[in-house]
Amino acid sequence: xxxxxxxxxxxxxxxxxxxxxxxxxxxxxxxxxxxxxxxxxxxxxxxxxxxxxxxxxxxxxxxxxxxxxxxxxxxxxxxxxxxxxxxxxxxxxxxxxxxxxxxxxxxxxxxxxxxxxxxxxxxxxxxxxxxxxxxxxxxxxxxxxxxxxxxxxxxxxxxxxxxxxxxxxxxxxxxxxxxxxxxxxxxxxxxxxxxxxxxxxxxxxxxxxxxxxxxxxxxxxxxxxxxxxxxxx
Length: 233
Fold this sequence. Notes:
- With 233 residues, the chain is of the alpha+beta class.
- The chain has one domain (66-232).
- 39% of the residues lie in helices and 33% in strands.
- The strands form 3 sheets. The protein has a 7-stranded antiparallel beta sheet, with no helix packed on it. The protein has a 5-stranded antiparallel beta sheet with strand order 6-5-4-3-14. A two-stranded antiparallel ribbon has the order 1-2.
- The longest helix is centred in the first third of the chain and has 52 residues, at 34-85.
- The radius of gyration is 29 Å and the shape is flat.
């Protein structure tokens, strides 16, 4: 009985010593119980799991983009054929003009998936039509201004249109759906108080300026690729 009690005490002391010694020291001295080895193995595997997940997402996006590009080209060729026959006959947001229309396959919301940006050709400073590839089809989701800013996080992008009166818009594009987050209009640098909206509600010029300042501090990335002429497709 005494021998058994002594054995238990010795094992307990050894466990306390092992648990109190830093892992790095245990590694260096070559003594490491299996339970500790398993714990360290699990800790070291975490970056590998994250890397694998990122790699899988990248592969999925690459497969998606390959299908999307093919579908976008097929869709654009139909518009090209139609507008060549009758200029301005195709219209989702704005009439498309054969000689002037341009397009771009760009990741406008920085999620790794390509959207189709179509510049109709007339008054391209006014607006561009935006399309996504969803469930094997090309889907029109809305008309935006010239996309000039893409944010690194939050599925957000900014677009603007010119002319006598300038308009700025912040959009959110997620899961193939386009949402207008905020919009303002200005003339000669002065914001129109009757045209300041955020989340569908009218706000003051002061609040809009505060929002613009906040958004200007966010990290951005230029994702809009150079546009090509539709007639050359």
